[in-house]
Design a protein that fits this description.
With about 350 residues, the chain is α/β, with parallel strands linked by helices. The chain has a domain of about 240 residues: Rossmann fold (3-Layer(aba) Sandwich). The strands form four sheets. Strands 3-2-1-4-5-6-11 form a seven-stranded parallel sheet, sandwiched between helices. Strands 7-10 form a two-stranded parallel sheet. α9 packs across α13.
Length: about 350
């Protein structure tokens, strides 16, 4: 069953219990919305360190009452073995999205990043294997490629990590491989490439570039580009990532598990072109003119110049076919930000 629509149809007829860590976050809340809409039972774990209660409220508004009752929320921390044990009871599939993200944040505070991304990850792995979880799917990261200059990035060629965050995400992969070989816990790691979309936090110094720029341009404020604007990224819309997670849990054959996969769209865009696209879409949708040029700042420590994913492995093994390119994803994301502004 490698077709995503077939997989969703299968889920609507077969109910499982899922744990989503980081459920109140950007990616976690989008996973929650799709799984509940597909008649699944979901346990959500979050400590609100980077997630928001409003994201759960927004999902609730989209879900019929008879399906929302299939959701149980636990306010807890992955660094707590007790919280993890409580959350994993009776769970078939784990979708582990909780982490302390951001390369710059990890450089400022590597200890807290390590506690969340390695200690928390190990807690979940260990309790998952003791609880008989069918599959453990986790958010890996393109930061694992480090200083490797190969383009496009293929899963089995990585370089040296460039930040504490990158170290933690690589250690996650190593731990998952050891648990598969030693304890027989099936896993799939998804190396995300610059995910963006609705409910992504635009605020704070660690916000991702797309939501931050959308918010600024909607307010006619000047965005900042770190570097000369030629830095490029493989931007991936959130619904592509949701697809990858669900396919990873349900669709792949036994030969497809215990593997790491790139999850991206498979094209790269430089920051100047990204800025122009966001500006044009906002101008069109708001019927306004934005006479603002970006400000340039020094290149940030720990960042890489170019990132571009080869998604062949995910396509062949998982049936992953991203439906949303950058342009369509930006349009849907900007629409969601405009709608959110109208609520305030």
């Amino acid at each position: 069953m490698k077709n995503y629509l077939d997989t969703i149809s299968f889920l609507k007829q077969n109910q499982f219990t899922w744990l989503i860590t980081g459920v109140a976050g950007f990616i976690g809340s989008n996973l929650l919305e799709v799984l509940l809409s597909s008649n699944q039972k979901v346990i959500g774990l979050d400590n609100f360190s980077t997630g928001f209660k409003k994201n759960l409220t927004l999902v609730k508004e989209q879900i019929p009452k008879n399906l929302w009752k299939n959701f149980v929320f636990i306010e807890g921390d992955i660094r707590s073995k007790e919280d993890c044990s409580t959350a994993i009871k009776g769970v078939d599939f784990v979708l582990h999205e909780a982490a302390l993200g951001s390369v710059p944040r990890s450089i400022i505070d590597p200890i807290t990043t390590n506690e969340n991304n390695i200690t928390g990850f190990l807690n979940l792995l260990d309790i998952s294997r003791k609880s008989g979880v069918k599959r453990f799917v986790f958010a890996a990261s393109s930061s694992t490629y480090g200083d490797s200059e190969n383009l496009p990035k293929v899963e089995d060629i990585i370089g040296n990590p460039l930040s504490p965050y990158a170290v933690t995400k690589y250690v996650n992969e190593l731990y998952a491989q050891v648990f598969a070989k030693t304890y027989g816990l099936d896993f799939i790691g998804l190396r995300y490439f610059n995910v963006f979309g609705k409910r992504q936090d635009p605020n704070g110094s660690y916000a991702a570039v797309i939501p931050k720029w959308i918010k600024l341009l909607l307010k006619q404020k000047q965005p900042v580009i770190f570097g000369n604007g030629q830095t490029s990224r493989d931007f991936c819309y959130i619904e592509n990532v949701v697809q990858a997670n669900i396919l990873s849990a349900i669709a792949p054959s036994k030969d497809s598990v215990n593997q790491i996969y790139n999850i991206a769209y498979g094209q790269r865009t430089n920051l100047l072109d990204l800025y122009k696209s966001i500006k044009l879409i906002i101008e069109t949708k708001k019927q306004i003119r934005i006479d603002i040029e970006p400000k340039f700042a020094p290149f940030r420590t720990g960042d890489v110049m170019h990132s571009h994913a080869d998604i062949t492995k995910a396509y062949k093994s998982l049936g992953y076919k991203p439906d949303f390119d950058l342009e369509l994803g930006l349009k849907k994301t900007i629409e969601s930000f405009i709608k959110e502004d109208a609520r305030i």
